[in-house]
Amino acid sequence: MTTARRFPNMFPALFAAALFLLPALVHASGGEPSPMTMADILWEMGIKVLNIGILGFLLLKYLSGPLNKIVETRSAKVRAEIDAADAARRESEERLNTFRKKASLVDQEIEELRTHTSEDIEREQKLLLEEARQAAEHIRQQARDTIRQEVLKARDDLHREASRLAARTAEEIIRGCISTDDHDRLTAEYMEEMEAAK
Questions:
Q1: Closest by Cα among 89, 170, 171, 177 to 129
Q2: What pTM does this model have?
Q3: Is residue 180 part of a domain?
Q4: Is residue 1 part of a domain?
Q5: Residue 111 falls within a domain, yes or no?
Q6: How far is CA 41 from CA 45, 154, 166, 173, in A?
Q7: Each residue's pLDDT tens digit in the chain (198 positions)?
Q8: Dist CA 7 CA 69 (whole Å)
């Protein structure tokens, strides 16, 4: 099995990483850093924002598929359970209908027995239908809850991952934009503010 078949989503991710790291490599290969003009800073920030957008798009595109498959698999399982409950209810109704047909053929001599049987049948029917309805409703509610929880979990996972990537990207952007002089100046200003606050 080739690498492309084993890791079909790896190449777009590597492409996005290359796009993301390209400005840093170009900047690093320039030798001694020179002061950047405002236009250069804006251009570099624009490229990084574009890279983040592309990276976010690719992550959403290639992570949403597996998550959707998980949700669909769970949904199919829940649907199968609901179908099984419906089949059990239909079978109960068919048995009840068969029992009614047999009861209608009883001779007049056992009319009183048939009357009692019919009452028992109706009572059993109500109990069976109520039990089947409750079981089906319980399964439906469990299915809804399961689907809702899986969707929320998938969204939370996706948001957590996106937040982590955004924070890491923002940190790299800030590190790329702040020079050593800026860092020293900000540190000195912070220390002066701390001294003034005392």
A1: 89
A2: 0.28
A3: no
A4: no
A5: yes
A6: 6, 37, 20, 11
A7: 444 455 555 566 666 666 666 666 555 555 555 677 888 888 888 888 998 888 888 877 777 777 678 888 988 998 999 998 888 888 988 888 887 777 666 566 778 787 877 788 888 888 888 888 898 888 889 988 888 898 888 888 888 887 888 778 777 777 777 777 777 887 888 888 888 876
A8: 17
Distance, CA of 138 to CA of 130 (rounded, Å): 12
Which residues touch 184 (CB under 8 Å, ≥6 apart)? none
CA distance 75 to 69: 10
Domain limits at 158?
Answer: 9-28+38-173
Question: What one-character DSSP code corresponds to residue 110?
Answer: G
- Name the nearest CA neighbour of 164 among 62, 56, 71: 56
- The CA distance from 122 to 127, in Å, is 8
How buried is residue 19: exposed, middle or buried, by Cβ count under 10 Å (0-12/13-18/19+)? middle
Residue-level pLDDT at 173? 74
Q: Is residue 4 part of a domain?
A: no
Domain count, the chain: 1
Cβ(142)–Cβ(74) below 8 Å? no
